[in-house]
Amino acid sequence: MSVYEKLMKVQGELIAPKGQYNSFGKYNYRSCEDILNALKPLLGKVGATVTITDEPVFIGDRYYIKATAAFIDIEDGSLVSNSALARESSDKKGMDESQITGTASSYARKYALNGLFLIDDTKDADTDSYHEQTNKSSKKQDKSDEQKNAEMVASVDPDLLPDPNRTPEYRAKKIKETIAAKKQDEKKLMENAKVDKWESLTDAQFVALMGWLAKK
Fold first, then answer.
1. What b/e sequence results for 120-133 when a residue is b if at least 16 CB atoms lie within 10 Å of its CB, and e otherwise?
2. 3-state secondary structure of 141
3. Quick check: is 140 in a domain?
């Protein structure tokens, strides 16, 4: 088979499950790791491998991470590649440069793989298309729970508005302090959030939980 025939075979057989779950947003999503784990057995069958490389690029006044996923035929070295870009955040509050670059790299790598292996994430909760679809219906309704939670948190402490660059350590400390002040069962809340430590929460989860606690 040519490299294109091998790629077509892998594209047709690849099923990348959404192995991650956002307990507060209540949706499943797939990560770069989920795609690679599903991909590895198929590569051995067709005699191919995949490499992913990153490089920083400067566009306008911002830095982007360009990830390139390459499908390589190990028999003759021919390849097919696809690239994707993710922008580094301009706000480095609470996050060092390596963390910001790492986040952009993970996002870019996932979408480079999506394009190469025809994985459709348009309805996943971390995409602009998803938000465009959900926003059309939400405009006809009152404010979403996420908005209400954010406003509730802001009314208690303006510094706790959504901020993806907030450090995990800060989120954990703030949650523990709030749980103690509200006299809530920390172990039960952690079980409901499906985490073994508060540092594992995303910033969106943190805001949602702080909003819920603010109502108590």
1. ebeebbbeeebeee
2. coil
3. no
Q: How far is CA 136 from the centre of its chain?
A: 22
Instruction: For residues 46 and 114, state if they share a domain.
Output: yes
**Could you give phi then psi for residue 50, rounded to 5 degrees?**
-130, 135
Contact 39, 16 (CB under 8 A): yes
13 and 116 co-located in one domain: yes
* CA gap 177, 181 in Å, rounded: 6
pLDDT in tens, 59-114: 888 888 999 999 999 999 999 999 999 887 665 554 556 667 788 888 899 999 99
In the 8-state DSSP scheme, what is residue 159? G
Domain tally, the chain: 2
Model confidence pLDDT, tens digit, residues 147-178: 666 666 655 565 666 676 778 898 899 889 99
pTM: 0.54
CA angle, 158 then 100 then 84, to 5°: 120
Pair of tokens at residue 172: 């954990």
Distance of alpha carbon 68 from alpha carbon 109, whole angstroms: 7
Q: Tokens in use for 199?
A: 């540092």
Q: How many Cβ atoms sit within 10 Å of the Cβ of residue 76?
A: 10
